[in-house]
Amino acid sequence: MSINPLIENLIENNSLFDQAVPFDKIRNEHFLPAVKLAIETAKSEIQSLLTSTTEPNFENSILKLETCSEQLDQILVCFSNLEIANGNDEMHLLAKEIYPLSASFSSDITLNPDLFKRVKYVYDNQSKLSLNSEQTRLLEKTYKSFVRNGALLTSDLKEKLRKIDQELSVLGPQFSENVLKATNNFEMLLDKKDLVGLPESAIEAAHELAQSKKHSEKFLFNLQIPSYLPFITYSQRRDLREKFYLAYNSKAFKDNFDNQENIKKILNLKNERAKILGYQSHADFTLAERMAKSPVVVMEFLKKLLDKSKSAALKDYNEVADFALRTDNIIDFKPWDFPYYSEKLKEEKYSFNEEDLRPYFQLENVVEGIFKHAQKLYGLKFKERPDLPTYHSDVKVYEISQEKDGKYMGLFYTDFFPRETKKGGAWMTTFRDQGMARNKILRPHVSIVCNFTKPTSSKPSLLTYDEVRTLFHEFGHALHAILSDCTYRSLSGTNVYWDFVELPSQIMENWVTEKEGLDLFAHHYITKDLIPKELVEKLMRSHKYLAGWASLRQIQFGLLDMSFYLTDPSQIQDVDAFENKSTADCRIIPKIEGTNTACSFSHIFAGGYSAGYYSYKWAEVLDADAFEYFKEKGIFNQEIATLFKDHILSRGGTEEPMELYKKFRGHEPDPNALLRRDGLI
Question: How far is CA 385 from CA 23, 413, 471, in A?
């Protein structure tokens, strides 16, 4: 019978370069049949394993399990990436069928007692097998995956676990879909008189957005970051800042897309799952496979940072509030005032407005800049491949090779602009991991997806400094995947502990705090002049501005996350009240009635950061310490870059993260490195 394009072109007979995804041939109706067929293929592979009479060993059991579902994995990663980057209602409906099928198949594997017997036999007899370190790591990971997914449970508890996983597979995407719909649901249509204080770039973008929706004389703003952030930062209309702030901070809370019940269901299910597996809470379950190891360590870590950060944040707040009082007699200082007056105060203190930077951050130049950084640090070259298909006209694809010998390293996709079919934020993902598939080691296909400032009819995309840092952050994740040199896909690239995965991304942000890094790409989009030295100096002087405030904000998110997943869900009857209680120690400005963080906190309810949001601060300690090493030797020092590539970027999850870090740095990270960098000590 004829196989649909997802199987025929994506897996078996793809004539495109290096099996690139044939996005131009894939249609929504292809996904469900392809998933079902791939599941049957994988089941057939597993059945052949179960009927084998040969003694279980690494190759015929562990490696077989690693590779048996490679077709299904490829199709699922394609679907999930497209659903969040270019999804429509049809795809969201498909998700409600496809993800439960995937979850059921995963349960079929991990809850199968005969499969586990083979895995356990190999695990118990590994001393006789002469395995190398990577094989040993894969064996341990496979065994733990079975145990952590219920292999040791009784039959009735296995069925309970299966049901829970099915429900969770639907709830996460539903949460994310609600946030996206709530984001798209709010628009603010304004007249020219309402735009006082806004930068020209924001006004032009709002006008073009209004025109696209048949409002030729109006200006349209929405809750996507390139629209929201300039408005809340620069608008002199306090009443409109308030309206915008309230809309942004109440997404999916007490509206048509309310996520409160989804949160309670997710918390109950994850807690029940953890209890079934013998853990006190979902946080305990999660952290057993993290660098931090336990909730006690995480809470002590966050509270230690809280002490330093809150005192610094209080100084930041008082300085901004006093400035608002002094300049505009603002007595009742509110959250929607902080971005506006903090920016005005920065201008006064440093003679610096971040909008002054935009002309030097044309998107195309910044992209060229990340490529130059990759070349100088790791010897990589990027060549655009317009002949390869993409899933949207905004997307570009590049072929990656090594500069010294031309060795092919993979494909790299970029997708930079917001649209109603894309969820908010920025992320890195893969369409194919590096490692063994189809009986050979394949190179990765990597993508970064963002929601940056769009070009207008008169200007190219000119990024904010924060957007530049975001691009470098996501590119750091991409380098982790691109430079991976592992044998097995489940250990390669970013398949590491989640409190280690942010090290490669966060360290890359440091290069845009250095003039030597900025000079590689920061040229005026019209005059082509290099960014002036004095402007860079102003940027650097302002770099620690509000560092305490920013740190406190991240700690607040981390504590909220841990509180949700450490608490017995039966004690959480009111999501908003629980949030208020959990974050009380972090609050300096009182929370505004009607606003809520949790209901749009996709990282912890629809992403992989449940009981893991602390990872950002944890990895900041690692990256601050690691970049001190670069600073000592030179930010493009080849010796240090090679150490970082060889021991961090290329090794994936093949060793314990701290061991990898010590091989790079020579010692464990200095916890004070972050506090030094932020000026908190």
Answer: 14, 10, 20
Question: Average pLDDT, stretch 570-584?
Answer: 96
Residue type, position 264, single letter: K
Asked if 510 and 627 count as a contact pair (C-beta separation under 8 A), the reply is yes
Rounded CA-CA distance 196/244 in Å is 15
Report, as an integer, the average pLDDT of 656-667: 96
> Which of 83, 134, 399, 474 is flagged as catalytic?
474
The pLDDT assigned to 10 comes to: 53
Find the distance separating the first CA and the last CA of the chain, reported in whole Å.
Answer: 69
| Burial call 329-339: b when 16+ CB within 10 Å, e when fewer | ebeebebbbbb
474 annotated active-site: yes
Q: Which residues contact 128 (CB under 8 A, 6 or more apart)?
A: none
Give the pLDDT confidence score for residue 290 in this predicted structure: 94
Write down the pLDDT at residue 2.
47
pLDDT greater than 50 at residue 1: no
Tell me the domain boundaries of the chain: 5-110+112-152, 186-235, 260-352+547-613, 359-541+616-677
If you average pLDDT over residues 455-472, what whole number do you get? 95
For the domain made up of 260-352+547-613, give the CATH fold. Neurolysin; domain 3 (1.10.1370)
Q: Which amino acid is at 676?
A: R
Amino acid making up residue 276: I
pTM attached to this predicted model: 0.95
Contact yes or no for 62/139 (Cβ under 8 A): yes
CB 198, CB 234: distance < 8 Å = yes
- Rounded (10°) angle between helices 133-148 and 113-124: 140
Residue 671's pLDDT is 84
Name 667's Cβ contacts closer than 8 Å, sequence gap at least 6: none
pLDDT at 5: 65
